[in-house]
């Protein structure tokens, strides 16, 4: 079994959409964790649009395979979002 490597990091998000990471076309999903309620989506995401993730729990966000895209997040106040996905 080969060792896999992962891209990972943490980003502080607030009340405006903040870029969390760029997901490569080869990846089917991304694993995220946030310290408080966060809404995920594209560059125009707000707290009333997008996908709401759980607080203090890992959350898998499916992505469109074959398409490079940026993941954004926004919070009602502030949060730290940690992400991870396999490197290509």
Overview of this structure, please?
- This protein has no helices and eight strands.
- By secondary structure, it is mostly beta strands.
- The protein has strands at residues 6-13, 18-23, 29-34, 38-41, 51-53, 58-62, 69-75, 79-86.
- It has a single domain (6-86), classed as Sandwich (Jelly Rolls), CATH 2.60.120.
- It is globular and about 40 Å long.
Structure characteristics:
88 residues, 4-stranded antiparallel sheet, Jelly Rolls, mainly beta
Tally of separate helices: 0
Question: Strand tally, please?
Answer: 8
Largest sheet data: 4 strands, antiparallel
The CATH class assignment is Mainly Beta
- Architecture in CATH? Sandwich
Sequence of strands across the biggest β-sheet: 1-8-3-6
β-sheet strand percentage: over 45%
Segments where pLDDT lies below 50 for 5+ residues? Answer: none
Distance between the termini: 17 Å
Cα Rg: 13 Å
Overall domain count: 1
Shape: globular
User: Would you tell me the structural class of the helices and strands?
Assistant: mainly beta
Topology as a string of helices (H) and strands (E):
EEEEEEEE
How is the secondary structure organized here?
Blueprint: E1 6-13, E2 18-23, E3 29-34, E4 38-41, E5 51-53, E6 58-62, E7 69-75, E8 79-86
Antiparallel strand pairs: 1-8, 2-7, 3-6, 3-8, 4-5, 4-7
In summary, what is this structure?
With 88 residues, this protein is mainly beta.
């Amino acid at each position: 079994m080969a060792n896999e490597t992962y891209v990972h990091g943490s980003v502080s998000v607030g009340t405006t959409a903040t870029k969390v990471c760029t997901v490569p076309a080869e990846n089917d999903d991304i694993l995220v964790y946030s310290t408080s309620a966060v809404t995920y989506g594209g560059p125009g995401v707000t707290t009333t649009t997008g996908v709401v993730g759980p607080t203090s729990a890992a959350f898998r966000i499916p992505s469109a395979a074959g398409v490079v895209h940026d993941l954004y997040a926004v919070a009602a106040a502030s949060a730290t979002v940690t992400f991870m996905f396999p490197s290509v």
